[in-house]
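Letters spell out the chain; backbone shape is given numerically. Both lines appear below:
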Amino acid sequence: MRAVRAVLHGKSRGAFAPAIGAAAAVLAVSIACAASAAVLAGCAGTSRAAAGAHTAGSPEEFARLGLSPTQVEPWEDGARTDGSRGTYEWWYFDFSLDDGSTVVVVFLTKDFTRPNAPLSPVVTFSLDGPDGTTVSRTVTARAADFSAAADRCDVAIGACMASGDLAAYDVHFEDEEVVADLHLARTVPSWRPGTGHAFFDEERYFAWLPSVPRGTVEGTLTVGGAARRVTGVGYHDHNWGNAALPGLVHDWYWGRARIGDCTVIASFITATDRYGGVALPVFMLARGDAIVADDAARVRFSARDTFTDPATGKPVAGVLVYDYEDGTSRWRITFRRRTDLVRTKFVDLLSGFTRLAARLAGFDGAYLRFGGTVTLERFEGAEVAETVSQDAAVWELMYFGHAP
């Protein structure tokens, strides 16, 4: 969704690789971004009347944005902003490798600790090994060393690059310690919820394109001079917008999972009070290489076994349920929390003036990531016809707003 998902991605190894959302370096960038953005959002005022948050998907909105309601085009994964102040954009890749490692590479037009900065390109790389070791690297570059095509994904930041046409991508990361060359081939079609744009008034929006909901990956990793071949599965999405997310979003749950031969992306986003606290659900279910359910209007979301997290003060649901029924098919996706993987108050990661400004703005946002199980049920009539579970699932709660 993710969010400051460049980041706020909270992706992990296992069945889930996110919003919008991980390796330590990427998460740190995300959290600092959210807090800084919150300060800016708190200073922005509320002079413009709220126009109702919604996921754009009407025929008129498809036409206005130049999008097809039935097909994602390669240009949609090209540069959608110019890197100027008040805009942000990133291309996110994660790879769950067969040896148990997870690699996350993110190409950003600017460091999210300075969301109102001019174009300031940065690439983050994180490698989490199955033994608990982590390698985190960051490459920063001058604006002159950044390029991004508008007709397809073709991003270069210094010696690092990502290029692809929806069907396949090549990702290269390079610095003095790490060289990664990874090839991602799509197995689940590119997809977006409606137009992929969530509008919060006539101008403010956040856009998200899961260019590769699931794919196969192969390539090489070289760390400290030691090279190895790798294979696995991967994911890629593209995010951009023109308004700080804490001013738009109160909270969201976001998860992505592989359950047998099924791929699920499920999220429940709640807008801020300024935008009426509107719910913006997201749901996509693919079986094999075919998307079988993706109409968010057909989703009923419920959260159960809710308690107050003692570390962050935020309400946390122990069970999340997404029920999907469209008159022809009925599915249920259930996430059951077993453990807390991350519990972070954003302000605790700040220092100096930024920390003071966040406190003065009353910002108490938090990010939590959970581990547990995800279960898929397929119904025929009122009866459960199929049940598949995946252990070691991971999902996130991004909570910018104040707890009730």
